[in-house]
Design a protein that fits this description.
By secondary structure, the protein is an alpha/beta fold. The protein has nine helices and eight strands.
Length: 311
Amino acid sequence: MKLVRRAIPAIALGSLLFVSTSATAVTWAPPVKQANAGDSISQGFGANGWPGDHADLSWVQGDDERVNSTADRTGDVQSGFTQEAESVTGAEMVGGDDSFPAQAARICAQTVKPTRVRVLLGGNDVCNRDKSGSADATANMYSVRTYTNAMRAGLDQLAKCLPPKSVIQVMSVPRVDGLYEAGHDKSYWCHWGIWPVAGICRIVTGESNASRRAQVGGRIDQYNDSIAAEMKAYNGNANGKNPKGHAFVTDCVGSIAQGKRNTSIGTFMFTEDDINGVDCFHPNVEGQARLACLAWAKSPDGAGNYSSCFQ
């Protein structure tokens, strides 16, 4: 468990955090502890230009002021704030020992339960799949139903185990076909040397046809649509699985095709300046800072203004 040492403003939050909505004031449990479920992005992989995890540069758990993570931002407004991360490089939403249901179970097993949980999973669900040899570039990808069922399995656990009125924030999945374009622009060596040798996200980096890469991106849009739909169902307890009155929120408000460019992680058009030079695919310090800014703005704890995150 990590104690975030930040200066606390003179105005205390009190026993509950008050969040204004368009109609009424909603009260959520104070953000005394954060946990997260995630993959290499949440581990800050390669963010400083060196291989390996660099959790201090993570959008969610980092303590480097250049990133200004959600942990640091929360520590600025909540006395005694702590965090306990469960993210693991290589994790998927669906498969493996570190799937979202597995990470959710570990969050629920924490001695002190968090009142804020942030989730960013899905990139490996795409990048761990082999390139399709058929006419359908998405043939080897998880179906939307499979992806959604894994998400529900994790959310169901969190809904049951977290303190009442907690906040669960599930971020959208980045478009890896867009990351391909950013890496292609970054350096000749990214697409001619690093990607083939290291086998980086071969479902798109090994695909020379832009239309087929866009098919992969289209499936990611479907995953993100599912995230938005599930958050709505849980948040309003329409599915009967949120009796504790948690806030289930996401950054997703639609796809690039729907005119929602740069409104979420899933619609963020990464550029060469936002990714590292190690694998030319993961966010660098600036990219991590953008994700932190967006996640905070899209959470009940934040200011709600995200446009500056992408400037």
